[in-house]
Design a protein that fits this description.
Mean pLDDT: 82
Low-confidence stretches: 1-21, 109-114
Order of helices and strands: HEEEEEHEEEEEEHEE
Structural class: alpha/beta
Number of strands: 13
Shape: elongated
Largest sheet: 9 strands, mixed
């Protein structure tokens, strides 16, 4: 029994050392607008066609998506493939809206007729913050994530504008470090943030409006 116990400890120690290897590397994180635990909502009774333009990058620090601190020292870095965070967030929002029954149309010329866009609502955005961090210790990795995106929705029919700030935070502790856990946490934060765009608005004759309870007089 003693030998088995010591072998188990040795195995854990080896796995921990191996798990902490590769400091300084860049770990790709794929952003999605639908978290693993998110259920699809019913299709909207009043369909609305939405065009999403490229988001602006308003982050103070634009170097990467986040940092992993290793148990024995050193750090690795998280980033989206291609290091184009705003494009990744834009695509994640598209995925979220489609999963919730919204019709997302392209902003390219193929979706325009007679100089007029086919969209009912044009969304513009600015990524104020989007980050995920992981700190590895002996037998645990603490993951934290946050996101903040400002949204401006312009109704094509009358030019009216709806402005919102979508933000969220999340955290989870896991035993072993795994990039999939990191992706799950940041994607759930994004999905929860994007859900406010749907929860706090309503569609009236193909125009997006803030719900009455949220309207400031």
């Amino acid at each position: 029994m003693k030998q088995t116990w010591m072998s188990w400890i040795g195995g854990v120690g080896l796995a921990t050392i191996v798990g902490c290897a590769g400091t300084g590397e860049v770990i790709p994180i794929h952003l999605r607008g639908v978290a693993q635990t998110t259920e699809k909502a019913a299709v909207q009774p009043q369909p609305v066609r939405v065009a999403i333009g490229p988001f602006e990058d308003g982050r103070q620090h634009r170097t990467n998506l986040g940092v992993r601190t290793h148990l024995w020292g050193g750090v690795s870095y998280f980033d989206v493939p291609g290091s184009k965070l705003t494009e990744a967030v834009t695509q994640a929002l598209k995925e979220h809206l489609v999963a919730k029954g919204w019709q997302v149309v392209s902003t390219q010329g193929g979706d325009q007729k007679g100089g007029k866009t086919e969209a009912d609502v044009i969304l513009a955005g600015r990524v104020e913050d989007c980050a995920v961090h992981a700190k590895s210790g002996f037998g645990f990795t603490a993951i934290t994530a946050r996101a903040k995106v400002t949204i401006q929705a312009t109704n094509v029919a009358d030019g009216s504008v709806v402005r919102m700030v979508l933000n969220g935070k999340g955290a989870e502790d896991v035993f072993w470090f795994d990039p999939e856990d990191v992706e799950a946490v940041i994607n759930e934060v994004l999905a929860d943030s994007f859900s406010r765009l749907i929860q706090d608005t309503t569609v009236d004759q193909r125009k997006l409006r803030l719900k009455a309870s949220l309207t400031v007089s």
